[in-house]
Amino acid sequence: MKFSKMHGIGNNYIYVETKNLGVHEHDLASLAIAVSNVNTGIGSDGLITIGSSQTGDFRMRIFNEDGSEGENCGNGLRCVGKYVYDMGLTTKTQLVVETKAGLMHLTLHVDASTNTVEEVTVDMGEPRFLREQIPVLSGNPNEMALHDSLEIDGQALTFTAISMGNPHAVFFVDDVDAIDVAAIGPKIEHHSFFPQRVNVEFIAQKGKHELDFRVWERGSGITQACGTGACASVVASVLTDRVQKGEEILVHLLGGDLRITYHENGHVFMRGPAAFICHGEWL
Hints:
alpha+beta, globular, 4 helices, about 40% strand, 18-stranded mixed β-sheet, Diaminopimelate Epimerase, Chain A, domain 1
């Protein structure tokens, strides 16, 4: 199986064209677990497949390190955009990619000197706010989960829940480096409020246009970056009057920075880099 390993500011996946898979679709979960293993596999945050689509230019499927299938992945979308252009699968710089969360629109920013993609802007669509849409069981299913509270180890923690096609719980803190993400992240991910589990973000405001960010990703644990999480965090910051809608926000993740705008039209736009790490063959 031919593969490429890519990363979007440190969030790394194994990328495989569906024509190169050599396995049935029902085996993809176990394949993701195998290739993600850093000791006996390749080592990654998961597996992303790239194939044909009936509704878009390409179809992307995301499998986490534990084999669970994700609905969307912002860093993965940027890497898919770079992959299909740099590998000669398309000459278009405006793409539509089918995901489980719907159709995502990509703008590829190409370096004219190398004819390779340096950055990608993704229209992540409109966030969803109602508890039943996320889903979260913390209150009225037809209302927003804003300033909701849950209990971990006897301590009440306040969060805002948002869906970017996948569920996120955003916690605002004074200092992200003071949070033991490895200890508290899985407890929140598996909390009874979240029937489909949840991605967990810890956010500290650094000014009118900057946020510090740490994440515990559903199914993968601590990762260097989470594109949908960065989007959800900016939306939550707007909802809680920390930043302004329509302004570009610089989000500092462990692996690098993303520029996120919660546009006045209701869509969230994410711009950031994508890079190849290596190409290889899985034996």
